Structure formats: C-alpha cells, structure tokens
Amino acid sequence: MGDKQQISLIGANHVATKLEHPAKLSAAERTRQKYARIIDSPELQELSFLEREFLQQRWLDQIIWFSNKAKLYRDWFYWVRVTTIIGSILVPALISLGSVYAHVLWLQFSGLNGTARSDQIPIEDRTFPSTATAFPGQIDGLDALFWYRFCLFSGLGLSQLVAILAAVDQLFKFGDRWRHYRSTAELLKMQGWQFFELSGPYITYAQTGHKEAFPAFANQIEEIIQSDVEGYVSQIASQKLFNRTEDISRR
C-alpha cells in the first residue's frame, strides 16, 4: 500500500472518529456540520452552485467567525471582571490586615511592654522579642514583620493589577464587543432559519420555493455584514475623534 493511500486512510479514519464522537468536535465544527446537512438537504437542491457557495462562504463562515469572536470576548470579559471584583474585595482586606500587624510592630517597639522605647535603643541592638518572652500568646515580632510586608506589597500589587484591568476593559470594551458579535451571529442565524423555512420576510415565497427567495435572502445577509462593518468603522472613527478632542483640550 502506498504512502498516499495510507494518508488517505488515516484522514478517513480521523473524520469517521469525529463523526462517531461528536463531543470531540469543536463548537465551530459542530456548527459547520449541522448547517452543512441543511444546505445539502433535498429541499435546497434547486439552488445553483454559486448560491450554495454563498450559503457556505458568505453566510455559514460569517456565523462561525462572529460566534468565535463572541466567545473570545466573552471569556475576556468574564476573566477581567471577575479578577477586578475579587481584587477590589481583597485590597481593603489586605490593607486592614496589614494595619493590624503594623500595630503589633508598633507595640513591640513602643516600650508599652515595659522595655525601653525603640528610639532609645541603638539600631544595631534592636531585636524582635519572641512570643514566649515578651508577648506570650501573641504574634511573634518576626512573623508580624513578615505578614506586614506581605500585606503591604500584596495589596499594592493587587491594586495596580485592578487598575490596569479596569483600564484595559475600558479601552477594549470586551463586554460591548461580546454583545455586538453575539447579536450579529444570532441575526445571521435568524435570517438563515427564516430562509430555510420560508417564514418571516420570506413567507411570500412559500409557493415558489427557495430559488425565488434566495436574492432577497442574499441581500439581507449583505446588509447585515455591511452594517456590522460600518458600525465598527464609525466606532473607531468616533474613538479617534474623542482622543483628538482630549489632546486639543489639554494643550
């Protein structure tokens, strides 16, 4: 058996395995497989080759592209928002906890434990009293210093991370992009199903068939894609105009 035949068999087995186990398919592959069966159905046999190519490349590919973009920005939106919320809750807690350890350190160096004040002791002679001697049952000085520094630097780093994520979310607008791509994908799906069932705006073609309804369907799909492009361009243009206005106002 030649190498080409072996490769063909391996590819066929791979496809057969995917068909037998649909759970292994990605969301895009499942979507493509589901709508490909509809496009190849007997009800749409009257469509020409170009019309079928339009359904595959201009309608189905756009649905998959918009769906993938919606999933990407949804994941980014949830990750940024959840991290920002958790960080916003932890920062005050770390600051409060750090103040507690700072108070412990202040007590140990203030002379309230019956020893000399820390400012009266030379720097080279200053030591942290142990838990067993000066502060029985309380926090050891070295432990207090460690946790004070931990809370201080952790709170500082986490607050910076929260500020950065909030700025990134404001810049890229993950939530708005997610909802925009999701709504566009659903609008394309709705038009497709209305065309397949000859309902909604295509109900007048119920007697004549999909062949007669296809020009109206193709026009609707092109209008949806065009409106998406125009919306994106206008959004970028408005953002640039806003930034330019800010720059002028600062001068």
Protein architecture, described:
By secondary structure, the chain is an all-alpha fold. The chain has one domain (48-250). 75% of the residues lie in helices and 0% in strands. The longest helix has 61 residues, at 49-109. 14% of the residues are buried.
* Distance N to C terminus: 76 Å
H-E order: HHHHHH
| Total DSSP E strands | 0
Radius of gyration: 33 Å
Number of helices: 6
Number of domains: 1
Largest sheet: none
Strand content: under 5%
List the helices and strands and how they pair.
Elements: H1 3-20, H2 27-39, H3 49-109, H4 141-172, H5 174-197, H6 210-250
Helix pairs in contact: 2-3, 3-4, 3-5, 3-6, 5-6
Write a brief caption for the model.
With about 250 residues, this protein is mainly α.
Please name the defining characteristics of this protein.
251 residues, mainly alpha, 6 helices
